[in-house]
Every structure is written in C-alpha cells, then in structure tokens.
Amino acid sequence: MTLRARLVPVGLALVLLGAAAGCGGSASSTSSGGVAKLEVGVVPVIDVAPLFLGVSKGFFTEEQLDVTPKPIQAGATIAASVVSGALPIGFANNTSLLIAASKNLPIHLVAAGNQAADGDYAGVIAGTESGIRTPQDLVGKKIGVNGLNNVGSLTVNAGLEANGVDYTKLTYVEIPFPDMAAALSQKRVDAVWAVEPFVSAIKAAGSGQMVFRPYPAIAPHFPVASYFTSENYRKANASVVDRFRRAMNKSLEYAQTHPDEVRKILPTYIKITQQVADQVVLPEWSKDIGAELLGRTADYALKYGYLTTKPDIAKLTAT
User: Fold this and answer.
1) CA 98, 115, 29, 16 torsion: positive or negative?
2) Hey, how many other C-beta atoms are within 10 angstroms of the C-beta on 32?
C-alpha cells in the first residue's frame, strides 16, 4: 500500500503556522457569475470521502460553489496555507487545531470532519510475539504513533485512563503509518496506534493483533477532525463559508447513509484498490461538530502538556 498521508505533526505545524501568520496572502477563492470557486486542502485519507462524494453529487454546485479538493500530503502544510490565506478552507485533526487555537492562531472550525467509529477503524495493535493482550499489558512498552504529542498519543492516553491503566509508563515513538507493519515485524516497537486503511494493512501483513480501541473507550462518536478556515477569510466571505457549511453537512449525512458509494469513491483519490476499499472500516460522519467532546479533547491536551491554555471552544465553533 502506497498511501503515505499523515495527520498534522504538531511541532512542524506550529512552526509553519507561526511563519504563515505573518505572511498575509490571498485565499484561493474566486467568484464568477455568482459562483465562488474554492480549493479545499485535504490530506488524502478515508475521512475526507464526504467532500469528494459531495462534489460528485452536486451538493456544492447547489450552493453556487465550485469546489476543488486539493490533496496535500502534509497536514501542517494545509494548516499553514489556510492561516496565510493561500487556501480558504482545509481539513485537519482536532487535536492539532485545538493546539493551534491555544497559540492564538486565527482559525475557525467550519464543519465537522468525521467521528470515530466502533470496530477496528482505529486502535492499538500489538506485535504478534509481544505478549500484549490487554491494555494493562501496554505499561512500560514502546508504542508507535504517527506524530508525537498529538492525536495518537492523546487518544491512547485517554483510552488507557478510561481502562484504569497508568498512561505515564508508556514510551511513544514516531513512526509513519505506512511503516508501522514493518516496525512491528522488526520489533522496533511493541505496539502501534493506527487508523484505517493502515489497520487493515497491518492485519493483512500478519504483523499484529488489535489490543484495544481508545476512541470508544473515551466516548461514543468522538470527533476526530474538522474543516476549518481563517478568521480573516470567514469575516470577509461569510456567505461563502455558510454555503460551504451547508453543502458539507449535506455531504456528511449522505456519506453516512451511503457507505457503498463512499467505498467506490475511495480509490479515485487514495492509492488503494477497490478490494481494499470494500474491506476497510469506515469512520462515522455527522454534521455535529461535537463542541462538548472538543472541549474534552482540549482538557486532555492540557493535562498531557500538549497545550498550556485551553482555547475558547464556543468562539472556535460559533456559526
């Protein structure tokens, strides 16, 4: 599998965001005959399928929007581009967005991205010869995550807390998602936190077995990511942002109720076969941005030292 997309690595993201915040620039949206053209920055992962599906179904056209998803491999680049004004709207995981907001970077959440599903959408997978069978067995072990001090370690810590396990006894190692199966086989780590389609890839390689699923242990329907814009763009283009939100919400609800169509569209923007697309565990999609659970994510990030001040969730998500 050649998909190498990663969630936003927070250290790099903040460096890029800090640089971008002082750059100014013009967002990539233009109007022609009443139609606004938008480039939306996305990491090419399963989670953004509703955007591609909504474009193909004409939901954005109905709102007089000509939307072009712009796949970008690094989430940090998306965040920097939105803050600088080079892109009007982007997609990123909520932990990174909350950390950015706590640094007073001018971002605003526009629409929900996705929520964690039950089953093996995401979880901690241990090496087959590690002897790890329960969350308690992870104490004192090395866990691979795609980025340090970000969504992976946050959800693992919170999930272990929910299971009464001391998360402070873990050591995290940064490993790109596509390299996790090899890391387990080579015993460079004892376990990894992975998301689909990488969970399926690890299983197919025979490298590991699921130990526990942090998201459901924290709360049902936990919000993983969101679509966001800059405050400057939001203020200058309020109607466009509102129309994007309406079309995106329709796309999210359609994707949730039409999983077969989601699976068909995945290979059009992710380098996976239709056979893999037919087997992966899909996330959940809902128009609920999950403000209460976003607040809990911020509380976890504060507790784990990923941020020093809690951002104003109501201001960040106000419509």
Assistant:
1) positive
2) 8
Q: Looking at the DSSP assignment, which residues form a beta bridge with residue 68?
A: 39
CA distance 116 to 282: 9
HEC secondary structure over 198-217:
HHHHHHHHCCEEEEECHHHH
Beta strands in the chain (DSSP E): 29-32, 35-42, 65-71, 89-93, 107-115, 122-127, 142-145, 171-174, 191-195, 208-212, 223-230
To 10 degrees, the CA torsion angle through 71, 75, 76, 79? 80
Beta bridge partners of residue 158, listed in sequence order: none
Asked if domains 10-115+222-317 and 122-218 share a fold, the reply is yes
pLDDT band at 171, cuts 50/70/90? very high
Superfamily of domain 122-218, CATH level 4:
Periplasmic binding protein-like II (3.40.190.10)
Read off the pTM: 0.87
Q: Structural domain boundaries of the chain?
A: 10-115+222-317, 122-218
304 residue type, one letter? Y
Give the distance from CA 270 to its chain's centroid.
15
CB–CB of 270/46 below 8 Å? yes
CB within 8 A of 125, min separation 6: which ones? 180, 184, 191, 192, 193, 194, 199, 202, 203, 207, 208, 209, 210, 211
Distance, in Å, from the CA atom of 209 to the CA atom of 128, rounded to the nearest integer, reads: 6
CATH superfamily entry for domain 10-115+222-317: Periplasmic binding protein-like II (3.40.190.10)
Query: How would residue 27 be classed by pLDDT, with cut points 50, 70 and 90?
Result: low
> How many residues comprise the chain?
319
